[in-house]
């Protein structure tokens, strides 16, 4: 079926209307938007309506969206955290690439594929989609969690290994890097360019970033344009020298991460990121030729199961050996349970060079469709999946989980009267005021930055997830009088789990007999939270308004407790 569109503007308009309609239907059916947008590409692609004709324009918009997405990730990175997670990111990334390549090659041979075809397929299976994973983790507010930071680290390591592998394959005549989506060159050139870009970022951060952004901030619109220019420029340079747009965009964000205006930049660019990424998913869906599917159904099923199960298991095993908790390893492992858009590009390159037959592209395309769709649901339902498989994962966890204890700086003592979950601005304000009254407080969060901030304020902390039954059961609940949750509700995609309700249930089943207070920003949630077992529902805006009225009417003003500045990213997570 073919639909003729007379102009590029009309074509883009039609795609936007389709995205809005199908996205709305997806929300009604509680499906992730990523799946809906890929479906738009499939419907608009050559296999259905054949609506997409402006390939270059759509590709340009999608590439700019990639640059902005990774820029916004980089602008939130903490250099100290990067140092602490470097080893696990490197080892996990390299381990996953080696495991997938070797066993993928052996599976290909066992299925009767030729040696060269098996090699192409095996290398294609090592690619995981950094863009899709970062978008999903960002939507779930988990990009700043420990498992999110580790996943981002080994995805970047994986991207670098893929670039180097494609250059090596090119050198020995097995492939070519020129049309791969990354720039080409020698291994030494890529390494030299990488060192040069990092050195440039260090110089920019130390001598240029703060004074320049201070001048630009006088015109906020110019500051935003400058940020987009930085993202596009670094992505372009990274692509030219062979590092890839993703790494370039990430470095651009790191270059501005130390400035006091990073929250303003991130807030202004978030809507632009979501708009541009729509074209990335449309381009991904429209590039899939459904007519190629079906030639290797059995092989596609086997390879898909290998990616969906084998890749997370190897990440879980490596992180467990390094001393991380099984929950952290499981959640991080789910992020590699799919192949990337570059997998299709890589095999298509092999077809154009005559190294593999076109049915190999159909095989990888089917694996891509299955794994991208399935992993989207797996990541969205990650906490529920962990609850199902937790009993079988004990073999992947060392006793004491030494790495997480040392990284988060555990400071647990007995006798805490109040345990606060969610160490954002509201949680920190409560914690400091309780401490000032001589009440012993323990703070809990899964954001390492929030943990570090509380420790700097002299408050006791524990790193962990409020939805982890094992972790909650290990908390010192016996002598606590109150549990306070300031974690806001973030419904995304098809996952509408209410962390507050889950926490109430877990603490009660763990034997907590005190009172529970939860924060609510929506009056309609108050009755439901009381029905779920909450003893007190805190409504920050209403409570602040009541206190303001008391002060206006002459009530005595208590001494204020100064609350240190907390970034918008930490507020969103916490």
Bin the strand percentage. Answer: under 5%
> N- to C-terminal separation?
49 Å
Q: Cα-atom Rg, whole angstroms? A: 25 Å
Helix content: 55-70%
> What kind of sheet is the major sheet?
6 strands, parallel
Task: Count up the helices.
Answer: 24
Shape: globular
With strands numbered from the N-terminus, the spatial order across the biggest sheet is 3-2-1-4-5-6
Tally of extended strands? 6
The assigned structural class equals mainly alpha
Q: Unreliable segments (pLDDT under 50, ≥5 consecutive)?
A: 172-181, 405-412, 491-496, 567-574
Q: What oligomeric state do these chains adopt?
A: single chain
- Secondary-structure element order, N to C: HHHHHHHHHHHHHHHHHEHEHEHEHEHEHH
Q: Let me know the average pLDDT.
A: 78
Write structural notes for this entry:
Helix content is 64%, strand content 4%. β2, α19 (448-456) and β3 form a beta-alpha-beta unit. A six-stranded parallel beta sheet has the order 3-2-1-4-5-6, with helices on both faces. The radius of gyration is 25 Å and the shape is globular. It has helices at residues 8-28, 33-44, 55-74, 79-110, 115-125, 130-139, 146-171, 187-216, 220-241, 245-256, 262-286, 297-321, 326-333, 341-352, 358-380, 382-389, 402-408, 425-436, 448-456, 469-474, 499-509, 523-531, 540-552, 568-573; strands at 418-421, 441-445, 460-463, 482-485, 515-519, 536-538. With 574 residues, it is mainly alpha-helical. It contains 24 helices and six strands.
């Amino acid at each position: 079926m073919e639909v003729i569109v007379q102009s590029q503007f009309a074509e883009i308009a039609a795609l936007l209307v389709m995205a809005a309609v199908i996205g709305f239907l997806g929300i009604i059916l509680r499906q992730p938007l990523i799946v809906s947008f890929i479906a738009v590409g499939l419907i608009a692609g050559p296999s259905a309506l054949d609506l997409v004709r402006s390939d270059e324009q759509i590709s340009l918009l999608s590439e700019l969206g990639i640059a902005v997405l990774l820029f916004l990730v980089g602008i939130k990175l903490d250099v100290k955290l990067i140092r602490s997670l470097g080893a696990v990111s490197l080892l996990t990334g390299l381990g996953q690439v080696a495991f997938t390549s070797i066993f993928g090659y052996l599976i290909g041979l066992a299925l009767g594929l030729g040696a060269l075809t098996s090699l192409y397929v095996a290398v294609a299976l090592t690619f995981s989609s950094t863009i899709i994973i970062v978008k999903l983790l960002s939507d779930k507010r988990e990009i700043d969690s420990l498992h999110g930071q580790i996943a981002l680290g080994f995805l970047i390591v994986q991207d670098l290994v893929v670039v180097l592998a494609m250059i090596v394959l090119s050198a020995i005549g097995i492939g070519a890097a020129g049309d791969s989506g990354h720039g080409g060159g020698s291994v030494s050139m890529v390494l030299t360019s990488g060192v040069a870009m990092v050195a440039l970022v260090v110089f920019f951060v130390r001598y240029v970033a703060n004074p320049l952004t201070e001048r630009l901030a006088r015109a906020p619109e110019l500051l935003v344009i400058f940020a987009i220019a930085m993202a596009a420029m670094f992505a372009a340079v990274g692509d030219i020298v062979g590092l890839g747009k993703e790494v370039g965009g990430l470095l651009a964000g790191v270059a501005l991460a130390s400035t006091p205006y990073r929250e303003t930049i991130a807030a202004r660019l978030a809507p632009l990121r979501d708009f541009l990424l729509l074209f990335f998913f449309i381009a991904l869906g429209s590039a899939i030729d459904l007519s190629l599917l079906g030639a290797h159904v059995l092989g596609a099923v086997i390879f898909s199961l290998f990616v969906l199960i084998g890749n997370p298991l190897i990440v879980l095993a490596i992180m467990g050996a390094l001393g991380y908790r099984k929950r952290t390893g499981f959640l991080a492992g789910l992020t590699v349970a799919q192949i990337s858009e570059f997998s299709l590009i890589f095999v298509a390159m092999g077809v154009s060079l005559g190294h593999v037959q076109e049915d190999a592209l159909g095989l990888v395309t089917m694996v891509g469709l299955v794994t991208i769709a399935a992993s989207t649901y797996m990541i969205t339902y990650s906490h529920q999946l962990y609850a199902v498989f937790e009993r079988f994962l004990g073999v992947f966890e060392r006793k004491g989980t030494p790495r997480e204890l040392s990284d988060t700086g555990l400071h647990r003592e007995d006798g805490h009267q109040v345990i606060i979950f969610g160490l954002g601005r509201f949680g920190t304000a409560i914690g400091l005021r309780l401490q000032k009254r001589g009440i012993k407080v323990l703070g809990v969060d899964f954001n390492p930055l929030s943990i570090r901030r509380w420790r700097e304020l002299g408050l006791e902390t524990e790193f962990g997830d409020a939805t982890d039954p094992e972790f909650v059961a290990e908390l010192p609940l016996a002598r606590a009088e109150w549990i306070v949750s300031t974690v806001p509700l973030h419904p995304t995609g098809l996952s509408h789990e209410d962390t507050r309700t889950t926490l109430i249930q877990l603490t009660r089943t763990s034997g907590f007999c005190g009172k529970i207070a939860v924060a609510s920003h929506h009056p309609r949630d108050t009755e439901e939270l009381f029905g779920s077992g909450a003893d007190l529902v805190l409504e920050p805006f209403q409570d602040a308004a009541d206190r303001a009225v008391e002060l206006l009417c002459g009530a005595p003003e208590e001494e204020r407790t100064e609350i240190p500045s907390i970034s918008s990213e930490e507020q969103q997570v916490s």
